[in-house]
Amino acid sequence: MALSTRRTRRWTRREYDRLVDAGIFRPGERLELLAGDLVVREPQGSFHATAIGRAEEALRACFGTGWVVRVQMPIALDDESEPEPDLAVVRGSLADFELAHPSTAVLIVEVADTSLADDRRDKSSLYARAGVPEYWIVNLVERVLEVHREPRPDPTVPLRAGYDAVQSWAPGAVVSPLARPESHIHIADLFPRATYPR
Questions:
Q1: For the chain, does the N or the C end have fewer beta carbons within 10 angstroms?
Q2: What is the dihedral of CA 167, 112, 192, 84, to 10 degrees?
Q3: Which CATH architecture describes the domain 45-190?
Q4: At CB < 8 A and 24+ separation, what contacts does 187-191 make?
Q5: Using CA atoms, how far apart are residues 175 and 182, in angstroms rounded to an integer?
Q6: pTM of the predicted model, to two decimals?
């Protein structure tokens, strides 16, 4: 996932967590650790924030008790990655994560507008490498939900992992998360009602 051929210093998750605990970063600084690189997260517009809120509501209704829907909170994926996806669904309760971030999720969701290419390539590869069984991209630009399933090795992508099954669903359709096949989410409920402001 390196952005250039320059020599850079790679970080471990343990080092990153120590920097966070020591207060090295400015309050509100939007960083995440992705495959050893400290990456500045994109700022959010109101359209993007609305989509996160709508997706959060839909996921909470779908999953119910026994599950936690985390909004822009860290997931300790591996020794060099601690992303903060827009949404992540994990088993358990809030109390289960008082002392440590979860290390996996049954579903991760990224809301994408300007970050669409990175979410399709880099984030998809990162989540597949970690064995996350299902990854969704709420694609605000094309107004579709991209559903990624079946993680597997793939030497042609940045982190040598990808998803075998990728489908796009328009707002008229419904989708059932793999972890809750008996529940349905109307894809229209994931998007702001307004048209994406180009």
A1: C
A2: 110
A3: Alpha-Beta Complex (3.90)
A4: 187/144, 187/145, 189/54, 189/57, 189/58, 190/51, 190/54, 190/55, 190/58, 190/138, 190/145, 191/51, 191/54, 191/138, 191/140, 191/143
A5: 10
A6: 0.85
